[in-house]
Amino acid sequence: MSGYEKPSRGWGFCALSPVLLSLLMAAPLGLLGEETRQLFEFDSTNMSDAASRPLGKSYPPYSLANFSWNNITDSLDPATLSATFRGHPIRDPTGAFTNGSLAFRVQAFSTSGRPAQPPRLLHSADTCQLEVALVGASPRGNRSLFGLEVATLGQGPGCPSMQEQHSIDDEYTPAVFQLDQLLWGSLPSGFMQWRPVAFSQKRGSRDSAMPCQSSPLHPTLAYLLPQSPIVRAFFKTQDHSCAFNLTFGASTGPGYWDQHYLSWSVLLGVGTPPVDALSPLVLGIMAVALGAPALMLLAGGLFLLLGRKRDSEYQSIN
Ligand SMILES: *[C@@H]1O[C@H](CO)[C@@H](O)[C@H](O)[C@H]1NC(C)=O
Ligand SMILES: *[C@@H]1O[C@H](CO)[C@@H](O)[C@H](O)[C@H]1NC(C)=O
Ligand SMILES: *[C@@H]1O[C@H](CO)[C@@H](O)[C@H](O)[C@H]1NC(C)=O
Ligand SMILES: *[C@@H]1O[C@H](CO)[C@@H](O)[C@H](O)[C@H]1NC(C)=O
Ligand SMILES: *[C@@H]1O[C@H](CO)[C@@H](O)[C@H](O)[C@H]1NC(C)=O
Ligand SMILES: *[C@@H]1O[C@H](CO)[C@@H](O)[C@H](O)[C@H]1NC(C)=O
């Protein structure tokens, strides 16, 4: 079947993404060595000023290095080109993860388009989307906010650059006008792109949208790359990592406490990131909005013209 070649091609490019490599390194299966990425939990109960100081008292973080992960082979789905790493802490004395898990779902794409679920990031062929979902774990506070430390590979002596893009178009992600991205300029160049929004329900909607804040990127100690043969194969000269924090939600809600659910998505790929064009709807609205004053000007001009003409007619009569 001709359909078979496309999927494998999709995975091939997607798997080269620096972020995905770091994620593989970070996690799942302990495949590529040790890491220090963590899942943070904060109590926002007494936070009165959520905007300026979004985080409250911090609980001891969950280190993903101390998670056990499912056998990814079981979750590989060739039809959707997806796979899920699902994990929980190996030692769970409080039983917080008895009914819960932290899942990383990776989906590769062989054509361009948008997923049905928000944030509906535009993807092109050979990119992949990573969805991080915390589901069913018992929070330690009544109003717990969660955060994630994301580690990536550095670039030369520095870190990849972080950019914020603003648009007037929120058709695909209601009320979110910002797109954040991390760009690796040099080879292997790559990107990571996300909307600053997470969702507190499986069916993401405006009602369940939580703000997602990212901290600046800092160089960190190398994540023991020597133990990571796959990563070293691609990043021979890069011996340091960079990390930043993402935090999800605000004390005012919606929050994880609603349904014990939190998901956040990011698009990963090599080369240049896809660029969101203005949607036809927004172009239409702009045409109307800009068009109406233009029409009025035109009408005004005609009126003036007619007025003048009449003036001159009167003059000629005199
Ligand atoms: C919140 O504030 C109240 C009153 O100041 C205090 O009694 C309570 O322990 C605080 N709760 C937390 C979780 O910090
Ligand atoms: C993993 O757990 C062990 C034992 O609880 C602890 O000594 C170690 O520091 C933990 N690792 C990380 C990276 O937190
Ligand atoms: C994962 O599962 C596959 C088949 O289900 C098996 O062949 C493989 O050995 C398993 N891997 C691990 C690490 O358990
Ligand atoms: C896990 O689920 C079972 C059955 O739904 C329930 O009885 C138990 O209290 C839950 N445990 C936790 C820690 O939420
Ligand atoms: C959560 O709220 C309940 C009832 O309001 C209270 O009894 C409990 O102490 C709170 N728990 C925490 C961890 O703040
Ligand atoms: C992320 O936040 C935690 C807790 O607030 C902090 O210990 C850690 O250094 C932060 N990491 C980065 C890369 O900013």
Could you walk me through the main structural features you see in this protein, from its secondary elements to its overall organization?
- The protein is of the alpha+beta class and 318 residues long.
- It folds into two domains: 14-277, no CATH class; 279-318.
- It is 21% helix and 30% strand.
- The strands form two sheets. Strands 1, 2, 3, 8, 12, 13, 14 and 15 form an eight-stranded antiparallel β-sheet that branches. It has an eight-stranded antiparallel β-sheet with strand order 4-5-6-7-16-11-10-9.
- It is globular, with a radius of gyration of 25 Å.
- The protein binds 2-acetamido-2-deoxy-beta-D-glucopyranose (NAG) (6 copies).
- One 2-acetamido-2-deoxy-beta-D-glucopyranose is lined by residues 71, 73-74.
User: What overall form do the CA principal axes indicate?
Assistant: globular
Q: Return the domain count.
A: 2
State Rg.
25 Å
Q: How can the largest sheet be summarized? A: 8 strands, antiparallel
Task: Return the string of H and E elements.
Answer: HHEEEEEEEEEEEEEEHEHEH
Question: What are the salient characteristics of this protein?
Answer:
21% helix, single chain, lysosome, eight-stranded antiparallel sheet, membrane, transmembrane helix, transmembrane, 5 helices, 318 residues, alpha+beta, binds 2-acetamido-2-deoxy-beta-D-glucopyranose
Short synopsis of the structure:
This protein has 2 domains: 14-277, no CATH class; 279-318.
